[in-house]
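Q: For a teaching session next week I want to show students how multiple molecules come together into a single three-dimensional assembly. I've collected the sequence lines for a complex. Could you give me the predicted structure tokens for the whole thing so I can convert them for display?
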Amino acid sequence: MNPIGNLNKVFESRIRLGVMSVLMVNVNEEVSFNDLKELLEVTDGNLASHLSTLEENAYIKVHKGFIGRKTNTTYSITKAGEKAFKGHLAALEAMIKFNQ
Amino acid sequence: MNEQQHLDSLHDIKRIMERSTRFMSLSGLGGVGAGISALIGAYFAWNLLDGKVLPNRGGGIISYSGDSVLTFQLFLIAGAVLVAALGTGFYFTWRKAQAQGLRVWDASARKVIINLAIPLFAGGLFILGLLYNGYPGLVAPACLVFYGLGLVNASKYTVTDIRYLGYVEVALGILALFNLYNGLLFWALGFGVMHIFYGALMWWKYERNPTA
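A: Of course. Below is the structure for the complete assembly, covering every listed component.
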């Protein structure tokens, strides 16, 4: 058995892992781009590219809205994203147990 | 990736999940400051009530209705306590957030404020109603019960100790309701002594060793 095989390549980036962690615990809340930027302490461009990777994998949903005239983009986790993230956590756990 | 990196990512996940849902900068010293403000206020109120109005009723605030000057003075004291308590609470919390390199006003802080404000706002109107109908003796128990419920409600988004402080405040409020002549005593216990106790406890647990 090779537990490393179950680790999700998409979550190897710390930023993508961070985005998923935030969205995972804020299921019914709107998490904005700026909230994520502050929590993860990353630059706009960096965060945007990681978010689009997650979106391409259908792990997150993007909602575009407006506050007055300013755009307000919020993000939420999808069912598939939740499943993938839980799978990744289980794989991490299995791997640590396997190595002990 | 080796095992250490995996452990690091688990640590990251845990930290980010906590930081995105809970406001962790709440300062214990702020609680102590708020408690001291409340005790000073209670002392002044005690002197006002005991000396002039109710020498034979142990300083309870049950039967001063009709004395509008005294009501006004008590309002002034309550207002001053509120400003001093909020001021010290915010100051020490702001200082702690600075030391942690975090912003004070983030999504989790907003959740704490909103969830605390809803029961407090209802409580404030309820107390105005009590005064309007001539039941000043019920003010202290109502303060304690609504404040305690506010804390229990807001504790989902900050340190868990706040939940227990909330339970204690509610219990004191109920007890005060059955000891109306000692309303001020329970008020001082709940807002003064308990804030100092829980503030010191939180300081001991989270702030004593800032590196931990």
